[in-house]
Amino acid sequence: SQQGEEDPQALSIQEGENATMNCSYKTSINNLQWYRQNSGRGLVHLILIRSNEREKHSGRLRVTLDTSKKSSSLLITASRAADTASYFCATDAYGYGNKLVFGAGTILRVKS
Amino acid sequence: NAGVMQNPRHLVRRRGQEARLRCSPMKGHSHVYWYRQLPEEGLKFMVYLQKENIIDESGMPKERFSAEFPKEGPSILRIQQVVRGDSAAYFCASSPREGPRNYGYTFGSGTRLTVV
Lengths: 112, 116
Description:
heterodimer, A: mainly beta, 6-stranded mixed beta sheet, 0% helix, B: mainly beta, 7-stranded mixed beta sheet, 4-stranded antiparallel beta sheet, 48% strand
């Protein structure tokens, strides 16, 4: 089964609201990364959080990591219509080799 | 720096034909990864290569699929005798020498393969 699983599968919010997406994983990790994919495009790297970090910020993005619960969350504050995309977490996990394993993603729709 | 270049963007093949997908990594990146994405799904790992070496092909079907990353030129993902189930988006990503331990991937725009 996949290393990372996101929830919710889909999220629809109004512009200006905050969006929170969660990711759970199964094994110990070196780091966890979040990516965005606009429809029909490749993935864009957003942020990397290491296993010894608990929180990281980048602009309107805030990522938390709880290694005891094997979970992470991505918060997008003051969302914009341009944030409409799919968001994936990916783990660099021990025992999976030097590669990332992706979850199934959360589809975020921001209505203007 | 043009980033990761994939071509073609769209590829249509009849059942039984061969599909060749190309990927030129970002300048300075020595690791190449291929992933497959079915509609409405996440990315499934296929193969990880460095120049002239296949490091991990655990996600690649044993039959009909092959990949290479020669000393000169792009990485090639080759699918022989394509079937309808091969229809998907195929993404290539590259990373610096240290791989995902310290860096994120840079993805190409993908090749959308349609088998008719």
